[in-house]
Write a structure and sequence with these properties.
Blueprint: E1 2-3, E2 6-7, E3 29-33, E4 49-54, H1 59-66, H2 79-87, E5 89-93, E6 99-104, H3 105-108, H4 111-114, E7 121-129, E8 135-140, E9 151-152, E10 155-157, H5 172-186, E11 199-209, E12 215-226, E13 238-244, H6 246-258, H7 267-286, E14 298-300
Parallel strand pairs: 1-4, 2-4, 7-12, 11-14
Antiparallel strand pairs: 3-4, 5-6, 7-10, 8-9, 8-13, 11-12
């Protein structure tokens, strides 16, 4: 049975666009949580196949307005992603995860700046399982600046340089950020993912180019959580989302390795899969995740 859910997204525009006038919103779009891997359809907690009808965003209007700003950098960038790139301040850290400053998301992801060695920033990767122990994956939106349309774990983003996301005790700042972004990207309500239910398992440090201009250099917190949640993807962030079991994930890996269907995985997700995921999945099913938590080690991969 197909379930359609209305999910309004009130997307604010950049202050630089505040004086622009916009035409009427475009026609509503349909965003599906469905199978794109030609794999057996996984089961959802509430239905076997879920689609969410999203409210129209102002991406088209904002992009048109932005295109008139000839003197602005990256004039062709999607308006929503542009706002996030210039307004969000990432937390700069050293290789021991000590906070050393802050910088715009834009600068933190410019490859030429990454190569200076001064843009290492804190990040997190959420791995959300339902109570059938299936992992929720997402395909990043085509408008994402870094790694568009690649498949990855449930949610990957950054704690920001703000008081609530700088709290170091019990890694609360990172947990707060994870809860915030699960709502932003997948429409998962905060009450579905209480911050005390995230289990930080480890940290890893990695560097990866996206294309000739953009890339990542992150100290990434790996957060696991087992919850049945309501999922309503935001199309400005997520193209599709899907639960997979172990065998379905292995088939996905095979297709990515073979280059089938143009399928690609994010570099951070692949590092976690190759080094940790399947052994940690055993503990997900046993309910013993805390036994393998090691937040003292920073894995340099």
């Amino acid at each position: 049975m197909l379930m359609l859910l209305n999910t309004p997204y009130a997307l604010s525009l950049s202050r630089s666009l505040a004086s622009s006038s916009f035409p009427s919103p475009p026609t509503r779009r349909l965003l599906s949580i469905s199978s794109t891997f030609a794999l057996p359809s996984p089961r959802f907690p509430h239905s076997s196949l879920v689609s969410s009808r999203v409210s129209p965003s102002f991406r088209t209007q904002a992009s048109a307005a932005t295109a008139t700003m000839g003197d602005a950098p990256d004039v062709g960038m999607d308006a929503v992603q542009r706002r996030l790139m210039f307004e969000d301040e990432c937390i700069l850290v050293d290789e021991s995860d000590n906070v050393v400053g802050h910088e715009s998301k834009y600068n933190c992801h410019l490859w030429e700046k990454i190569l200076t060695g001064k843009m290492l920033h804190r990040a997190f990767s959420v791995f959300l399982f339902n109570t059938k122990y299936e992992l929720l994956l997402q395909q990043r939106s085509a408008t994402k600046v870094t790694f568009p349309l690649v498949w990855t774990n449930t949610c990957c983003s950054h704690p920001l340089y703000r008081e609530s996301e700088l709290i170091s005790e019990n890694h609360l700042g990172v947990r707060n950020a994870a809860q915030r972004k699960l709502l932003d990207e997948l429409g998962i309500p905060a009450e579905d993912v209480p911050v005390d239910q995230f289990v930080p398992l480890s940290r890893m440090l990695y560097k990866a180019p996206s294309d000739g201009k953009w890339g990542e250099h992150e100290l990434d917190y790996l957060l696991f959580i087992v919850r049945d949640v309501n999922v309503h993807p935001n199309p400005d962030e997520v193209a599709e989302a899907k639960y997979v079991n172990r065998d379905q994930l292995k088939e996905l890996l095979r297709k990515a390795d073979a280059g089938e269907d143009g399928l690609k995985l994010s570099p951070w997700f692949r590092l976690v899969v190759d080094n940790f995921l399947f052994k940690w999945w055993d503990h997900v099913e046993k309910g013993t995740l805390k036994e393998v938590s090691d937040m003292e080690t920073i894995h340099k991969l």
